[in-house]
């Protein structure tokens, strides 16, 4: 398993690195690359290469971080990259180019809804990424993922490729999981072909009656069922203002206090 973990030297991003390291330390040979993006631009009226100075210091700090992580998690292979450019552009492209299995990142202390609707790095990466993303609430302590909820909308699951990262995660963590659908007005329930992708697991299927918002329903059931992670499918929609407009992914982030896995469709 290879995971690209975003890092900006904040406490929340450090928490996400620790969460990812504890997850991957369960088995030997997994890899974490910690990526830090810098966006300093040199000014024409200043004769000092500010970008080079910032980059040099960042590389030193990242080296110290890698040594710390290697000491704490000797069974995980760590590396670091410092790249000049905005994270919202660099991270999705880099993760795809280098064939990472997941991107892991923190919510940076904001509520999920703010973190995807206010022009944040999280929002941009979820929009652009062709690699599955795990979003980790700020300063959330790691514990094994024993139960996962996969929330599906009326369109069901596009293909087996969409959910293959989830299946790998379930196998690696020996997790139980349940597929849920929030019934909204006269929408149909589950797509009849959903179970085709999970034959070896025999997951439970449940339709939830919408109680308040979809967000409230998902959050309430995730607490009631003792789920450790919520997983959703992100369908790329058109619209310049907000790619999450009218999608379950957006509403499901409002009150979530556990990791969210977003699978690109």
In words, what does this structure look like?
This protein has 265 residues and is of the alpha/beta class. The chain has 2 domains: 2-136, Rossmann fold; 147-264, Rossmann fold (3-Layer(aba) Sandwich). Helices cover 35% and strands 23% of the residues. It is built from 8 helices and 10 strands. The chain has helices spanning 11-24, 50-72, 87-97, 112-117, 121-128, 160-173, 214-224, 248-252; strands at 2-6, 31-38, 77-84, 102-106, 133-136, 147-151, 176-183, 204-209, 229-234, 260-264. It has a 10-stranded mixed β-sheet, sandwiched between helices. Helix 3 (87-97) packs parallel to helix 5. 37% of the residues are buried.
In short:
The chain has 265 residues and is an alpha/beta fold. The protein is built from eight helices and ten strands.
- Structural class given helices, strands, pairing? alpha/beta
Distance from first to last alpha carbon: 20 Å
Helix and strand run: EHEHEHEHHEEHEEHEHE
- The CATH homologous superfamily of the largest domain is named HUPs
Tell me the total number of β-strands: 10
Can you summarize the main beta sheet?
A: 10 strands, mixed
Unreliable segments of 5+ consecutive residues = 109-119, 238-246
- Averaged pLDDT: 82
